[in-house]
Design goal:
The protein is built from 20 helices and no strands. It is mainly α and about 450 residues long. It has helices at about 15-35, 50-60, 70-80, 80-105, 105-115, 125-140, 140-155, 160-180, 185-195, 195-225, 240-255, 255-275, 280-290, 295-315, 315-325, 330-350, 350-370, 375-390, 395-405, 415-430. It has a domain at about 85-180 and about 215-290. It starts with 14 loop residues before the first helix and ends in a 7-residue tail after the last helix.
Length: about 450
């Protein structure tokens, strides 16, 4: 098979990524900010599915030495990766959970209950803290976003900025995804570098926690500067809110995300029927609607896995790895190289776990060559992938948030405070690295 041969570096193999960026980001920026269309959002002019489909077609036309059948096999192997399949299953459950929770009145009741508890002006920082806790417990940013974005949307209807509320949830979710012991990214980063999770956590938290504290302070200051409106009192049904709290408790305990979401769906069905907000027919239709809302995200995941498999086989990733080797002359340069490499892989794959798996072997080589501690390499892999994953508008996190919130994912980027602050702290940690081994 073609994918068993020695892969040679080929910068031209990255052409499909350039095609995607031009089609999706280029057209999105043009139609959103340069030549807006009346009544249409710029980043919806060119579908992310269409952009990746054309990118995949370009990848198929490359490397004529490989037969079409072998290229299909490469795509199938990429799609069949454990991480990709797991993500697809999470998308299905996440969509079902979002649909039934909304139809049962759970999101509105929970949001109004939280508004009654959280002091006026503290709603957005509160969402950020809750997202940090839940994502740490669940080990998945996508699952956390699915649980909390409906609440953020409901809270935003009371006079707050929707992109800001959702941005706080996404930021907090990436915090937990980065640090959780049961997160796929943590498992991938530690296993590939042969380091204990607790050691990687201790190294990682020195960067992630200060970034989270700064983000929280920024959100508090922003909230108090923009709390002119009185939100008021809102009615809620505590029974309709209970399934959310059940999900949160199970997440804190550390129960598997699949079990958490499944129990959440069943509980919302029962509560909806008991409170009269649902009947059998509406329960079924709402679940189907929620799953349908995830179709685009699932298709994008499949297309990205296919494009990535072909690019990797054609030598695109190897070309990037060689470039990193040439530029990393000293320890700090090597650390920056690992971070940039991982971020680029995530930009290309739109999956932080896949990005870590792809970048990990060369990161380990660089770490060994420049005597960078394994726990530091694992931390750089995890945090760099989570930074990029929390920013790219075509990543699962922002696509899911966009699907639930009903606005383009690109609109969230200016409000993704935590990933940008985290990036700053990563740079600071490298610049002020105490080791002098060059």
């Amino acid at each position: 098979m073609a994918n068993e041969q020695k892969v040679k570096a080929n910068l031209g193999a990255l052409f499909p990524i350039a095609v995607f960026l031009i089609l999706y980001l280029g057209n999105g920026i043009y139609f959103e900010y340069i030549n807006p269309l009346d009544g249409q959002m710029g980043f919806y002019v060119v579908s992310v599915v269409l952009a990746f489909s054309i990118s995949l077609i370009c990848a198929f036309f490359q490397n004529r030495k490989i037969s079409f059948e072998d290229k299909i096999h490469l795509c199938a192997m990429g799609i069949g990766d454990d991480n990709i399949v797991t993500m697809l299953f999470i998308f299905i459950l996440a969509g079902a959970f979002s649909g039934i929770a909304s139809a049962a009145g759970g999101a509105t009741s929970t949001a109004n209950m939280l508004l009654s508890i959280i002091p006026t002006g503290f709603e957005v920082p509160g969402l950020f803290l809750i997202a940090c806790l839940i994502s740490m417990a669940m080990g998945t940013s996508v699952g956390s976003i699915t649980v909390l974005v409906p609440i953020a949307v409901a809270i935003a209807t009371n006079g707050l900025s929707l992109p800001l509320c959702v941005g706080a949830v996404v930021g907090g979710s990436m915090f937990g995804d980065n640090l959780s012991f049961i997160s796929d990214t943590t498992i991938a980063a530690t296993k590939t570098q042969g380091v204990a999770m607790k050691d990687k956590f201790r190294t990682n938290v020195k960067v992630a926690l200060p970034a989270a504290i700064i983000t929280f302070v920024i959100l508090v200051v922003y909230s108090f500067m923009n709390k002119g409106e009185l939100i008021g009192d809102f009615d809620y049904n505590i029974l309709q809110a209970l399934p959310y709290f059940l999900v949160l408790i199970m997440s804190v305990i550390g129960i598997n995300v699949f079990i958490v979401l499944t129990i959440g769906i069943i509980t919302f069905i029962l509560v909806g029927i008991v409170t009269g907000s649902l009947v059998y027919a509406t329960a079924l239709s709402s679940i189907g609607t929620g799953i349908s809302g995830m179709f685009e995200t699932m298709i994008v995941t499949i297309l990205v896995a296919s494009v990535t498999a072909l690019i990797k086989n054609n030598g695109g990733f190897e070309a990037i790895l060689q470039l990193i080797r040439k530029k990393a002359k000293k320890r700090k340069g090597a650390m920056f190289g690992i971070s940039v490499l991982t971020a680029f892989m995530d930009l290309a794959t739109a999956n932080n776990t896949v990005a870590i798996v792809v970048a990990a072997p060369i990161a380990k080589e660089i770490g060994d060559e420049y005597k960078i501690e394994a726990r530091k390499v694992a931390s750089l892999l995890d945090v760099s992938s989570c930074i990029m994953q929390g920013i790219i508008p075509y990543g699962a996190q922002l696509l899911v948030a966009s699907s639930i919130a009903g606005i383009p994912s690109f609109n969230f980027i200016p409000y993704l405070i935590y990933p940008f602050v985290l990036c700053l702290f990563v740079i600071i940690s490298i610049v002020f690295d105490r080791k002098k081994n060059d």
